[in-house]
Amino acid sequence: MSGSQPRVLVVEDEAAQREVLSYNLEAEGFAVSRAENGEEALLLVEEDAPDVILLDWMLPNVSGIEVCRRLKMRPATRHVPVIMISARSEEVDRVRGLETGADDYVIKPYSVIELMARVRAQLRRTRPSSVGVVLEYDSLVLDSETHKVTRAGRAIKLGPTEFRLLTTFMEKPGRVWSRDQLLDRVWGRDIYVDTRTVDVHVGRLRKALCQFGDDDLVRTVRGAGYALG
Fold first, then answer.
1. Domain 132-228: assigned CATH number
2. How many whole angstroms separate alpha carbon 77 and alpha carbon 54?
3. CATH class (in words) of the domain with range 7-128
4. How far is CA 201 from the centre of its chain?
5. Which one has a higher pLDDT value, 128 or 161?
6. CA distances to 111, 173, 176, 178 from 222, in Å
7. pLDDT tops 80 at residue 182
8. What is the mean pLDDT of the segment spanning 43-64?
9. Edge-to-edge strand list for the sheet holding 7-11
10. pTM of the entire structure?
11. What is the pLDDT of residues 130-151, one digit of tens each?
């Protein structure tokens, strides 16, 4: 799996529903993780937060509402968008779902096309590059569809790894990324790469961005990792 592929966690206790959702998400180019109950979902998110969570309301033991509440209480997972899926169409249920922190609420039976559009809408907020948005920071402009980068109007040539690194930094300027987080995001979590490789590629990225004598925008945070700006 490529580290730049957005990952969606599907939390659904009915196997058939879970498979239909997973199949459609994979067909749209998403990487999919699956959980069949609330406890499993919470563990998976703690290990490695996905980009979007599709969460069924009616789950055995820990309900979807409770899973959502716990995720939104924790600073580490608060930012992950949750789309609640429910057979409950009453307005009071919808309100309760949104009040618990759900970012969107979809009623069963739903249209798969509409659900995919809603997943992309959440990604536009949290991982803009994955839906082809142009990112800008300072005098840097990155076009995720054409894979072009310019700084102050001058073209910057980057290798695929440096491009993914810069994309990650530009999606969340100021956020400090640890080497392990960058490995997951840029190289993919299934690939074994030494953390020193991250330093090498950050060095190459810095060199490319500063080739015209501009300031270094990538900051090394001692003992923590790297950040943009």
1. 1.10.10.10
2. 14
3. alpha beta
4. 21
5. 161
6. 48, 17, 10, 10
7. yes
8. 92
9. 31-35, 7-11, 52-56, 82-86, 104-107
10. 0.70
11. 777 788 999 999 988 888 999 9
Q: Are 52 and 45 in contact (CB under 8 A)?
A: no
> Does 190 have pLDDT greater than 90?
no
**pLDDT tens profile 107-136:** 988 888 899 999 999 988 888 877 777 889
Tell me the Ramachandran region of residue 18: left when phi exceeds 0, alpha when psi lies from -120 to 50, beta otherwise: alpha
Structure tokens at 9: 């966690």
- CB-based contact 57:84 (threshold 8 Å): yes
Residue given tokens 């030494």 in the structure block: 194
Which tokens belong to 124? 């536009």
**Which is nearest to 9 in space by CA: 56, 50, 70?**
50
* Cα 166 to Cα 156: distance, rounded to the nearest angstrom: 12
Q: What is the gyration radius of the CA atoms in the chain, in angstroms?
A: 19
Q: Can you read off the two tokens belonging to residue 53?
A: 């969570």
- For residue 167, give the amino acid letter: T
The whole-angstrom separation of Cα 114 and Cα 54 is 13
Share in percent of the chain as helix, strand, coil (round to 5): 40, 20, 35
The domain limits of the chain are 7-128, 132-228
